[in-house]
Design brief:
The complex is a heterodimer of chains A (276) and B (293). Chain A has a single domain, classed as MetI-like fold (Orthogonal Bundle), CATH 1.10.3720. Helices cover 72% and strands 0% of the residues of chain A. The longest helix of chain A has 32 residues. With 276 residues, chain A is mostly helical. Chain B is 73% helix and 1% strand. The longest helix of chain B has 34 residues. Chain B starts with a helix and ends with a helix. In chain B, strands 1-2 form a two-stranded antiparallel sheet. Chain B has 293 residues and is mostly helical. In chain B, α3 packs across α12 and α7 runs antiparallel to α10. Classes of the chains: A mainly alpha (276), B mainly alpha (293).
Chain lengths: 276, 293
């Protein structure tokens, strides 16, 4: 009997916590369906009435979120592919080969993991600003996001490659594959669970990045979703219903990926997190 | 070429693209940042930069705004790290009891972690609006805790509070997940033995769970502290460092100096001191906390 009560107590406690955690999201969703009259009404509406889809239409068309969505997509796909490809090449090199200076390089790589990204932005901006080609160009964000964070990713993947049995790769080489073919056709597919985690991490990093793109992408035609959201918020008369339609547009792809690939998320955090 | 030499060369070819990117986009900027901090740096390449040695650093130590930013950053860390850690631990322990719907709860508690800082900061700014904001409505009209609306984000003595709350709310899920992984590593047999001896749930937590979670906890304290020091977007979005500099943190102050006033040399000096502080603290924590496992 005692056990049963405590189980119910646990459930109730967790449910209360969940309400606190989820309420801000709920309020964001319903605000995105409200008309502007009811944004600050007292008492606040907990179910939008009248509910309207106009905020989404207006943000998508008038506020150019269709364009920002496209820009974000154009940037995120090649950036993530480049990032994951470079990281896995590097990790595979460290995991499977012996070469002079290997552990030294690896130590240098790890040592800079604790360097705050914020420290890098000023000199990086200084570098980029010397080249007119790179300013206000989506390609810059693809490239810089693609080559960023390799140290952490390589560190994350190396352990995975080392834990894979080497026999398949050896037999592939005996069958005449060169080293790159062995990596590409044998090792890479085998490491897919880890790669999937990396894709998700990398996707979130690029999709949500605000500060760096806002420094580079100056013209509205090149803006990404986070820049668009901040621009909506900085308007003279802040229209929260529109803003939250905008944040929902940027959040929906993240949510889909999160719910579909949740087991990879959990694996990434609980394994990748603990190895340091 | 011998087989070994050939393999070494292949290995180098594999890491070369990553290594070059890394040297160009991480190592060079770090060195360049230190270099820039010695100059009165000019963003316009046509005007030569003036070498001033350690003057930026001397000015920094006389700069009151820097100290405010440093203190706010420390306060944020001191409040949010235990906040995330304790709540994350409680939730993880409850979830680990295989409560009903634990997968659902885990998914939900982790949701703020995957949501971007821009989105949640804008959201919290709305929730904490002084007139008609949801937080004031709950505190004043439902719970009657406060007699009148609080100006959360425009009162210098209150403006850090929403930033703390957001920091904790967003980070609980991460802490929970790491703790869950740690908890799953504890062999069930310990608890079974304790139950046979008649130990209460609380005693089991105190004598089995907490001591065995120590490495997980050290890892989290170090990581959360680094994260706390890096607080940026919530401040940037919700208050912009205001009102009257009362919520300025190290990173927001650095950004203001760099991208509002274009004092790149001075901002680099801030970022370097910032890096040294974070690095030192995390080293001390690691040493100190690792001592008596």
């Amino acid at each position: 009997m005692k056990r049963k009560i405590s189980r119910t107590t646990i459930f109730v406690l967790l449910l209360m916590g969940a309400v606190i955690m989820a309420f801000p999201f709920y309020y964001m969703v319903i605000t995105s369906f409200k008309t502007s009259t009811f944004i600050f009404s007292t008492p606040p509406q907990l179910i939008p009435n009248p509910a309207t889809f106009d905020n989404y239409k207006e943000v998508w068309n008038m506020a150019s979120f269709s364009k920002y969505f496209l820009n974000s997509t154009i940037i995120v796909i090649p950036a993530v592919l480049l990032n994951v490809f470079l990281s896995s090449l590097t990790a595979y090199g460290f995991a499977r080969f012996k070469f002079p200076g290997k552990e030294l390089w690896y130590t240098v790589l790890l040592a800079t993991l604790s360097v705050p990204g914020i420290l890098l932005i000023i000199p990086q901006f200084n570098m980029i600003s010397h080249f007119k080609f790179f300013m206000d160009n989506k390609f810059t964000i693809i490239l810089t996001s693609g080559i960023g964070g390799i140290a952490f990713n390589a560190f994350f993947l190396r352990g995975y490659y080392e834990s894979m049995p080497v026999e398949y790769e050896e037999s592939a080489e005996i069958d005449g594959c060169n080293a790159f073919q062995t990596y590409f056709y044998i090792a890479l597919p085998q490491s897919l669970p880890a790669i999937a985690s990396l894709i998700i991490m990398s996707f979130l990093g690029v999709w949500d990045d605000y500060f760096w793109p806002s420094l580079i992408l100056r013209s509205k035609d090149n803006w990404t979703l986070p820049i668009g959201i901040m621009a909506l918020r900085d308007q003279h008369s802040v229209q929260w219903n529109l803003i939250f339609a905008g944040t929902m547009i940027s959040l929906i792809p993240v949510l889909i990926i999160y719910f579909v690939f949740q087991k990879y998320f959990i694996k990434t955090v609980s394994e990748g997190g603990l190895k340091m | 070429m011998t087989r070994n030499k050939k393999r070494a060369l292949t290995g180098i070819l594999f890491i070369l693209p990553g290594l070059i990117s890394y040297l160009l986009w991480t190592i060079y900027p770090i060195l360049n940042s230190f270099f820039m901090s010695m100059f009165k740096w000019n963003i316009n390449p046509k005007i030569p930069n003036q070498f001033i040695g350690i003057e930026n650093y001397i000015n920094l130590f006389k700069d009151e705004k820097f100290y405010t930013a440093l203190i706010n950053t420390l306060k944020y860390t001191v409040v949010t790290v235990p906040g995330q850690l304790i709540l994350g631990l409680i939730i993880a322990i409850l979830l680990n009891r295989k409560a009903k719907g634990s997968t659902f709860f885990r998914l939900l508690y982790y949701l703020p972690v995957v949501t971007s800082w821009v989105v949640v900061s804008v959201l919290f700014q709305y929730l904490f609006s002084s007139r008609g904001g949801m937080v004031n409505y709950i505190l004043k009209d439902i719970l009657h805790f406060i007699p009148k609306n609080i100006k959360w984000l425009s009162d210098p003595s209150k403006a850090m509070i929403p930033i703390y709350i957001l920091g904790i709310w967003k980070g609980i899920g991460w802490s929970m997940l790491i703790f869950l992984a740690g908890l799953q590593g504890i062999p069930k047999i310990y608890y079974e033995a304790a139950q046979l001896d008649g130990a209460s749930s609380w005693k089991q937590v105190k004598h089995i769970t907490l001591p065995l979670l120590r490495p997980t906890m050290i890892f989290q304290i170090v990581m959360l502290t680094i994260g706390g020091f890096n607080v940026f977007l919530s401040v940037f979005v919700m208050t912009g460092g205001g009102p009257r500099g009362s919520t300025e943190v190290l990173s927001s102050y650095m950004f203001k100096e760099a991208f509002s006033y274009f004092h790149f040399g001075y901002a680099s000096a801030i970022s370097f001191v910032f890096f040294i502080i974070v690095f030192t603290i995390s080293q001390i924590q690691r040493k100190f906390l690792n001592k008596d496992i």
